[in-house]
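Colleagues,

For the teaching module next term, I've prepared a clean inverse folding example: a structure given as tokens, and then the sequence designed for it. I'd like students to try predicting residues themselves before seeing the answer, so please don't circulate the second half yet.
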């Protein structure tokens, strides 16, 4: 809730807040919400390195899960 308030109060830095929310959800193993927040950060700044880096982990986890299913 505090992070959402921060996004509304400080829209200039909202990409950072979305990225931080994504990190929190990723640590909680909520990939869907993590992906959503990283995507929001990247919509605001497609070159935002932190969000791109974290999306790489999402893709890596998904490819690893897929390879385990296909075995």
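(Answer key — instructors only)
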């Amino acid at each position: 809730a505090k992070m959402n308030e921060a996004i509304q109060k400080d829209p200039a830095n909202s990409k950072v807040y979305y990225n931080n929310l994504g990190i929190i959800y990723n640590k909680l193993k909520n990939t869907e919400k993590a992906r959503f927040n990283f995507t929001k950060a990247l919509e605001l700044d497609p070159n935002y390195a932190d969000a791109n880096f974290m999306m790489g982990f999402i893709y890596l986890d998904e490819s690893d899960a897929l390879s385990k299913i296909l075995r």
